[in-house]
Specification:
3 helices, single chain, globular, about 130 residues, alpha/beta, five-stranded parallel beta sheet, about 30% helix
Length: about 130
């Protein structure tokens, strides 16, 4: 039997949220995720290698913190929620294992079947 997804509202206002973006992650998708999550928490961090000026402007607009480098496991320490936007399956596997071990809620955008949740911006939020 296949079950349906249940839409759930979650208060992230006090949550520490980390977005992991890889080299091949679409910039527009990262910006959209930044702007969406910045409306939900004041504790937002983006880890991305070589962010473009456009992405840096979005970081400033979202009041997020940015760390310019590829993912390392230590980036997840203290996180409550992780959104991994990497396409690299080795990175996704590592993030998945680490989040499962520490009980961190996880969204793998390239592997939604392994995620704790899927992010979609609601049309009635505007």
């Amino acid at each position: 039997m296949k079950y349906q997804l249940l839409p759930v509202l979650v208060d992230l206002s006090d949550s520490r949220v980390v977005i992991l973006a890889g080299d091949s992650t679409r910039e527009d998708a990262v910006i959209q995720m930044l702007l969406l999550l910045s409306r939900c928490t004041a504790h937002l961090r983006l880890i991305a290698p070589a962010p473009s000026p456009r992405l840096m402007q979005a970081v400033r607009d979202s009041n997020a913190c940015v760390i310019s480098r590829r993912y390392v496991r230590e980036d997840l320490h203290g996180a409550d929620v992780v959104v991994c936007m990497y396409e690299d399956s080795d990175v996704c596997d590592d993030v998945f294992a680490f989040c499962r071990t520490l009980g961190i809620r996880l969204c793998l955008t390239s592997q939604p079947g392994r995620s704790d949740f899927i992010l979609r911006e609601g049309s009635d939020n505007d």
